[in-house]
Amino acid sequence: GDSAAAFSTWESGIRNDPENIGLRVAMIGALRKKGKIDEAIVASKEALKVNAKSIAVYNNFGLAYLDKGNIVLAKFIFQKAIQEIDGAEQNALLQSNLGWTFYRDDNLPAATEHLKKALELDPNLVPALVYLARVYMDDHNYGDTVPLLENAARLDPNNADIQLTLGVAYRGSGRLDDAKRAYERALALEPSDPSPHLNLGVLLGDYRKDYDGAVNEFNQYIAAGGKEKVLAETYIKAVKKEKEDSQKRVAAEAERKAKEEER
User: Which of 96, 73, 76, 74 minimizes the C-alpha distance to 84?
Assistant: First the structure.
């Protein structure tokens, strides 16, 4: 957690061993993680001056542009690496990153092609598993989504985002108990992220008809500072109305039966 000391160490290492690509790649990745995207791009360009054939540098370079929202340049960087570096086409991570870039560009056929290629090269590459699952989810193809995410969760069991997405896939497949467990697992792994509360509210309200439980989850989501506050409030109103309508239907049915028995 001491980023200042980490960057100081990398910079010292690079000064003493400027051709050490491992040090440069580590620093570029850390710059991206800290949100210093422009600095990561500059560091990537400097690294390529040292070694223009480094696939690891190209991967981070393209991801930096993707972080910046520049899909065109990200795609150019990944494709340039594949075209110009021997063996780069067989790099699973490079294929995965290019596939995700095509997904971000709404080119789902190309995204699918490259993500499948990535998994052929490395069946246990977690990013490729998650990205291809996203492609399938957009098409409501939960049958193919679930196995991918289950494998990703097995390989990276402490990843809250994977558990949350897996919960959505389970819900789409009708596996409601599994969905609930996945959402709860996501909350346990990342208590500061209230997103599972929103999903639990939908699950309980729309699928389980547990109206009070759903409202409780939505309120927890709002109290925790969830970004979709307006959406959660809309759900609360809808759930409360559905509860009232349900109670009226139950009362009307009871009254009908009572009159029938009296007759």
Answer: 76
Can you say whether the dihedral through the CA atoms of 117, 118, 120, 126 is positive or negative?
Answer: negative
DSSP conformation letters of 151-211: HHHHHSTT-HHHHHHHHHHHHHTT-HHHHHHHHHHHHHH-TT--HHHHHHHHIIIIII--H
pLDDT tens digits along 96-138: 999 999 999 999 999 999 999 999 999 999 999 999 999 999 9
The full length of the chain comes to: 263
Nearest residue to 233 via CA among 259, 201, 258, 207: 201
Note whether 206 and 213 are within 8 A (CB). no
Q: Which amino acid is at 251?
A: A
Which pTM was predicted?
A: 0.88
According to DSSP, residue 89 is labeled G
The answer to whether 169 touches 203, Cβ cutoff 8 Å, is no
Torsion angle defined by CA atoms of residues 209, 211, 217 and 220, in that order, rounded to the nearest 10 degrees: 170
Residue pair 118/110 in contact (Cβ under 8 Å)? The answer is no
* Segment 156-159 long-range contacts (CB within 8 Å, at least 24 positions apart): 156/126, 158/189, 159/126, 159/189
